[in-house]
Amino acid sequence: MTRFELLQLLVGQARNNGFEFRKWYVGKLGIPWKNAREALETLAAERRYYALLFSHEFASSFWKPGELMTFQVPTQTFTRRMADGTIGTVQRKAYTRRSTRDDAWRYHLREMALAEEPLRYMRRYLRVADDLEEEGEQEIRIEASGTDDES
User: Fold this and answer.
1) Residue 78 lies in a domain
2) Collapsing DSSP states into helix, strand and coil, what is residue 41?
């Protein structure tokens, strides 16, 4: 999948959730609007897609409020006063947490900022035909192996 195609899918999903791409493009980039295709080509060709990906307007539309999200809470070590009055070190293991929040997009912006390639991070949240075909092929392989085991 090309960068242009990926940006097209990302903007499409955000537009379905209320993102006004034309208004953002003209307002934030200050470039005259010709059409959506040329706007996406400009974002892809000149690496201006970072302005889009890290835009609060885009992020808050792409990740809908109240959407279920799963994230990893890292291992934590800290000191605190114990019940007997001594100072002790507390170590908590990492764990997975599932949550629905109105500001889930803020979490994703932080994670995307830490990611090596923000577009790859965003790609994980898209359902595209390639993924559906791969899943279908995996299901066929599983079903075929299941029938081989039974005979």
Assistant:
1) no
2) helix
